[in-house]
Amino acid sequence: MLKRIALSLVTLWLLSVLVFAGGRMLPGDVGRAMLGPFADQQAVDLLNKELGTDQPLVVQYGQWIGGILQGDLGRSYAYRAPVSQFLGTAALNSAKLAGVVFLIVVPLGIAGGVIAALNRGRLPDRLITITGVTATVVPEFVSGIVLILIFGVWLRWLPISATWPSGAGFFTQIYHLILPAIPLVLVLFGYIARMARAGTIEALDSEYTRTAILKGLTYPQVIWRHVLRNALLPTISVVATQTVYLIGGLVVIEIIFRYQGIGSLIYTAANKKDFPMLQAGVLVVGALFMIATTIADLLQASLNPRIRFGSTTS
Amino acid sequence: MSEAAIPTPAAGDLPPSAWRDFRHGLKRVMKSGAFLIGFVIVGFWIFCAIFGPSIVPHDPFADDMLNSLMPPDSVHWFGTDQLGRDVFSRVIAGARDILTVAPLATLISTVLGTALGLTMGYFGGWVDEILSRLVDAVLALPTVIVALLALTALGTSIVTVLFVIGFSYAPIIARTVRAAVLAERNLDYVAAAELRRENRLYIMFVEILPNVLPPILVESTVRLGYSIFTVATLSFIGFGIQPPSPDWGLSISSNYGLIAGGYWWTVLFDGLAIASLVIGVNLMADGIASALDD
C-alpha cells in the first residue's frame, strides 16, 4: 500500500516536469510572446525580469515547484493576481457539475450493466450495449448542441446557460446543470455499464454463484449477496479513471454552456497565453486524477481480501 | 472498452496459429453485422473525403451574402450558413481534413506505442518500471488538456495537433502491446531466437511483433475513433483545423451561437456527420474485436 502511494508520488512529480516542460516549449521568450513582435526590447526584458522568466529553466522549475509545495500556485500573467484566487472558485464550480454527472451516471451505468448481464444475449442486453457503445463515442460538443437544440430551443424545457442567477438556491443550481451534465453522462454511461456488465457476468459464471444457487438461496438473494458484491468492485476503479476523461470533457461543455469552471479557466488561459494559470490548472487536473485513481486502488484493495493480503503492486 | 477488447493469446500457443486465428477471424469479421454497417458508413465518408469537393452541387467556399442563413429548400438541401455558403456541399467536403488528420495521428500513436510497448514488455525490469511511470503520468491528463498546453506553447498548427494526439495515445497502445508481449515473451520461439544470439531489436521487431499484430490492429482502430473525437473537439474550440476549411467541428464552432435564433441547419448536419463517422469507426472496431476475441 505504501509502495502504491510512493509510485503515485513519483508519477505526480514526473507529471509536474511534463507540465512545466510543456508550458515552456515556447520558442523565444515569454515576455516577447506576451507583448507581441513589435514591442520594445527593453519592455520585453523588463517584463521577463518581473515575471522571473529571464532565469534558467531549471531555476524557474525549482521556484515553481517550490512555490506549489508551499501552496503558492504562482501569479497569473493576464490578471496580475494569484492563480489560486481564480482556481478555487473554478474548481468548486466544476466539482458541482461533475457531482451532478456522477450522481446521474453511476447508478444509471451500474443498473444498465447489471440488467444487460442478467439478460445476456437477449434484447435488453443488446439495446443497452449498443446504446452505450454509440453514446460513448460521440463528442460532447455534438451531443451538447443537439440537446440544446431539442430541450433548450425547440421544447424550451431547460435553460441553455449553465450559469444560474446570483444567489440562486441549491435546486435552481441543479436545474441549470442538468442539460450540461447530460452529454458527459452519455459518454460515461457506456464505460460504466460495460464494466458492470462484465463484472456481473464473471460473477454469475463463478463457482460460488453456482454453490449459492445449489444450496437453495432464492434468485434475489444470490444476486444481491453474491453476484453484485463481487461484480461491482472493478466498476469502482473505472469510475475513478473516468474522472480524467470527465475533466477533458468539462473544457468543451463549460465553453458551450458558458460555465465558469476549471475547463473554461484552462481554455481562457490558453487563449491568453497565461502560462502560470494554464500550468497550475493542468497540474491540478493531473493531481486530482492521480489522487482519484490511488484512492480507488486502495479502496478496491481494502474491499477485496485477495488483494489486501496479497501483493499490492500494480 | 479497450481493455476488454484485447484478445489474450493462450499460453503455449505456437506463433503461426495466432495468424491462422487471425485470418480465420477476418472471415468472421466480414460476416459481423456491426462491422459491415460501420464499414459502409466509414466508406461513404472516405468517398466524400476523396471525391467530395469535385462532386458537390455548390462551391463549399463560395460566399453569397444575399442568400445567407436560408433554411433547407430544393436548391440548398441543408440550407446556407452565415456567409450564404451551401451547407450540404460543406458537409460533404468537410470529411477531407478530419479524415486526413485523424488517421495520421493514429498512425503516429500506433508506431510510437508499439515501439514503446515492445521495449517495455521485452526488456521488463527497471526499463519497464521507468517507462510505466512515464506512461502513467501522460495518461493522467485528458488529451484535450495536453493539446491546449502544447498548442499554446508551440502555436496552433496541424503538425502539432498530429504529434500531441500521437503522443497522448501512444501510452495506451503501449500498454496493450506490453501485455501482449508479456504473453509471448516466455514462449519457446523467443528463447530459441535468444539462443541463436539474435539481435534484441531483431527479436522484438521481427520475431515478436508479427505475433502481437492482432491486438495492435484492434487497439489502433479504437484509437482512430478517439482521434476523430479529439480532432473534432480541438477544431471546435479553435485549436485544430483552421478556417476556411469546411471541417465539421469548425463549422459547428462558428455557427452554434446562432442556434438560439432557430438556425438549426447550420450545426445539426455537421453534428450528425461527426456522430456517424465516429460511430461507424467504433462499430468496425467492435466487429474486429469480437471476431478476434471468440
Describe it for me?
The complex is a heterodimer of chains A (about 325) and B (about 290). Chain A has helices at about 1-25, 30-35, 40-50, 55-70, 85-120, 125-135, 140-155, 170-205, 205-215, 220-230, 235-255, 260-270, 275-305, 305-310. Chain A is an all-alpha fold and about 325 residues long. In chain A, helix 5 (about 85-120) packs antiparallel against helix 6, helix 9 (about 205-215) runs antiparallel to helix 10 (about 220-230) and helix 12 packs antiparallel against helix 13 (about 275-305). The longest helix of chain A has about 35 residues, at about 85-120. By secondary structure, chain B is an all-alpha fold. Chain B is built from 13 helices and no strands. In chain B, helix 12 runs antiparallel to helix 13 (about 265-295). Chain B starts with a helix and ends with a helix. The interface between A and B is large, with 59 and 48 residues.
Compose a concise summary of this entry.
The complex is a heterodimer of chains A (314) and B (294). By secondary structure, chain A is mostly helical.
What's the layout of helices and strands?
The complex is a heterodimer of chains A (314) and B (294).
Chain A: H1 2-23, H2 30-35, H3 41-51, H4 57-69, H5 83-118, H6 123-137, H7 140-154, H8 170-204, H9 207-214, H10 219-231, H11 233-256, H12 262-271, H13 275-303, H14 305-308
Chain B: H1 2-5, H2 15-31, H3 33-55, H4 87-93, H5 95-123, H6 125-139, H7 143-154, H8 158-185, H9 188-195, H10 200-208, H11 213-236, H12 248-255, H13 265-293
